[in-house]
Structure formats: structure tokens, C-alpha cells
Amino acid sequence: MKKLYTVILLLLGLNVGAQQTIELCPNVNTTFTYNSDAGIEGIYTWVVESDIFVGNPFTYTWKKEGQYKINLSFTSEFGCIDTLSYDVIVIPCENTYMYAPNTFSPNGDGLNDVFNFYGYNYKNAKLFIYNRWGDLIYQSDGTGWDGTYGGSPCQQDVYVYMVQWYDSKNKLKQIVGHLTLIK
Q1: Are 23 and 42 contained in the same domain?
Q2: Do 47 and 111 have their domain in common?
Q3: Quick one: 109 and 138 in the same domain?
Q4: In this structure, are residues 92 and 24 in contact, taking their beta carbons and an 8 Å threshold?
Q5: Torsion angles phi and psi, residue 24, rounded to 5
Q6: Model pLDDT for residues 24-77, shown as the tens digit of each residue
Q7: Which of 31, 102, 106, 118 could form a disulfide with 147 if both were Cys (CB 3.0 to 4.6 A apart)?
Q8: Cβ proximity of 124 and 132 under 8 Å
Q9: Using only C-alpha atoms, what is the Rg of the chain?
Q10: Whether 140 contacts 100, CB under 8 Å
């Protein structure tokens, strides 16, 4: 019985005050496997919010922001019970990402008719389009460019785009690139 008691204390001692922080970023795996390596026989019951998992280890996928506790209850084969909890903080993605294609064809076929930028975790994005002489021909607060200037279609050519935005820490970011308008 003394060895069992020591192992349970080790189970608690290794994880007391433990914490994990997870970022919810697109295309990033938020599935984790949690495990107690006490090495003794018994029933491991894990609780996350209202979800209950029996066995060791267990796997959980984090899907929404918040502060959570993983509660582990262990019952030994002799009926001894012990518990511990582990804090998990799920935060929004702090990384920011912005992408803009390098070609579009505003020819009215319904495919790729508007040049736009794509990203995540940004705010207050602005799009600027310049012609080859550096003249600003289009500016918007989030809407794409339809390939016109002053109401007339622009010629097939290479243009320069700039996208500016603020990340989650209110830091100004930007990307600049070349854009080919194809008729």
C-alpha cells in the first residue's frame, strides 16, 4: 500500500500548477493527447467541461477560446482515490497572415474577375493599386479591385498592389507585390 500511495503523490506532484496555452490558428492541429504516467493499474477518469473520458491516455481537440480545466480522477484497484487538475488556456491566433494572388482576369466570365487579398487574424485592411508609373488608381477598405479606373476597364498590364492591415497587437503590417491583369 505504501508504494501505491507514493505513486499517487508523484502523479499529483508532477502536474500541480501545470498549464498549457494553445493558439487557435487556421491549419494548425489543436488535438492533444493527455496521459498520466503513474504506471499503476486503476481507473483514470478525465473531465473537460462536460465531456468525460475513461482510460489513459485520452485525446481532446480544442475548438474554441476560453479557460479550461482538465480534471483527472484516479481510482486504484484497491479503491484509493485521488484527483488533480490541469489548466488549459485557448487563445485566438496571434499570428497574422495575408496573401494576395499575382494574376486576375476581369473579363466578365465570373471566374477570377476581382482582385482581392485573403488572410486571417487581421483588422482594418486597406488595398491600394498603382499603375506602372506609380499613380494610385484604386483604394479600398476591404473590397477587391474589379480592374477599372475612373469607370473604364484598365489595359492588360502589370500593376503594383499594397495591402496594409493591423495585427492582433495593433501593429501595422503590409505586403507589396506585382499583379498581372489578363484580358
Answers
A1: yes
A2: no
A3: yes
A4: yes
A5: -90, 85
A6: 887 788 899 888 877 778 899 999 998 999 988 889 999 999 999 999 998 888
A7: 106
A8: no
A9: 27
A10: no
